[in-house]
Amino acid sequence: TRALTKRFTSSKGLFGRSVSVSAVNDVSLDIRRGETFSIVGESGCGKSTLARLLVRLLPASEGAVLYEGNDISSLSEPEMRRLRKDLQFVFQDPFSSLNPRMTVGALIEEPMKVHTSLSRKERRLKVADLLTKVGLRAAFANRYPHEFSGGQRQRIGIARALASGPKVIVGDEPVSALDVSVQAQVINLLEDLKAEFDLTLVLIAHDLAVIRHMSDRIAVMYLGEIVELAPNDPLYDKPLHPYTQALMRAIPIASPHGRSMDVSLTGDVPSPLAPPSGCRFHPRCPHATSLCGTEKPALAEAADARMVACHHWEKIAENSQGSVREPP
Ligand code: SF4
Ligand code: MG
User: Fold this and answer.
1) What band does 96 get if pLDDT is binned at 50, 70 and 90?
2) What is the ipTM score, two decimals?
3) Whose CA is nearest to atom 5 of ligand 1?
4) What share of the chain is helix, strand, coil (3-state, %, to 5)?
């Protein structure tokens, strides 16, 4: 294909048949080929729902997800099969997504049976190759998922996701169930594989620390909406939205004095069943004015190819005089 960008747009998801909850509300974004695009927010902000919408694990109620120019909700069966081949999903808990009665080899081979015309022998060779590529031993093919650690199981999940020869991998908090020491290894692995297999990565994360160095662009979600969208460095250097600023201050800072994290983000996330009027962040925002309670700020262009949804971002940026992060 000659398309240089992948365009995903999804809007207004209303989920649940008995209760109507707007988990993802009027979200529009473009994900570009070859980039690492991260979606960050607290639990319940709709980021996992958005991830599932992107790969049609969930149907959108309104709006569209475009993949290479086609709305994925109206694909024919053969087109759908191609979509499944191209767009793979890595789940948060690798164990729950893997059938415990299948060997590791069979699990990784399964998508090849569906999506490729490889012979049995070729598939076996590819399983061995993928296991090595994700940093495991080829002989692990004959063993079962429960014999492995969380980090190893996530590597197996990643090998399985790679088996169909995908173009895009969407990871829903792929490392958040793992020990901190293992998280970095798996993140590094994803970065290496992205380069080797020419992948587009979409990563869902609940804090900004995990994806700190690896994203090209980051979307920050709050209560089903994107409140800020920015390239990696500008976002970390100078977050514009008060919610992003609060998330940034919640990143633990290692210091010789053992200072604990600044818990500036107080209060629970309001229920998506009854989202606050106006700016959805206004009950928790230190900069809220009466305008914020009544009028919803649009996600609008700010400086340097950034987008922010806040009535007062310019004034807030002026007053913060550069980085809002405290020095380590
Ligand atoms: Fe805070 Fe108002 Fe900006 Fe919302 S619009 S983030 S309440 S200042
Ligand atoms: Mg989630």
Assistant:
1) confident
2) 0.96
3) 310
4) 35, 15, 50
Q: Is 203 helix (H, G, I), strand (E, B) or coil?
A: strand
When the pLDDT of each residue in the chain is averaged and rounded to a whole number, the result is 83
Whether 220 lines ligand 1, by a CB cut-off of 6 Å, is no
Q: Point out the ligand nearest to the CA of residue 296.
A: 1
Can you tell me which residue has the tokens 């970390």?
Answer: 236
Ligand 1 pocket, residue 285 CB under 6 Å: yes
Per domain, the residue ranges of the chain are: 5-215, 220-261+270-320
Helix/strand/coil (H, E, C) string of 83-137? Answer: HHHHEEEECCCCCCCCCCCCCHHHHHHHHHHHHCCCCHHHHHHHHHHHHHHCCCC
Please tell us whether the domain made up of 5-215 is placed in CATH 3.10.620.30.
no
Quick one: which ligand is closest to 93's CA?
Answer: 2
Residue 272 has pLDDT above 70, yes or no: no
Task: Round to whole Å and give the CA distance between 294 and 292.
Answer: 6
Query: Cα(313) to centroid of ligand 1, in Å?
Result: 8
Amino acid found at 78: P
In short, whether 311's Cβ falls inside 6 Å of ligand 1 is yes
Testing ligand 1's pocket by substitution, the residue of 244, 264, 289 carrying the most ligand atoms inside 8 A of its CB is: 289
Q: Ligand 1 centre from 236 Cα, in Å? A: 19
C-alpha dist (Å) from residue 28 to 65, 89, 258, 283, 285: 9, 20, 41, 24, 24
Q: Give yes or no for residue 287 CB within 6 A of ligand 1.
A: yes
How far is 73 from 67, CA to CA, in rounded Å?
10
Please report, as a single letter, which amino acid is at residue 326: E
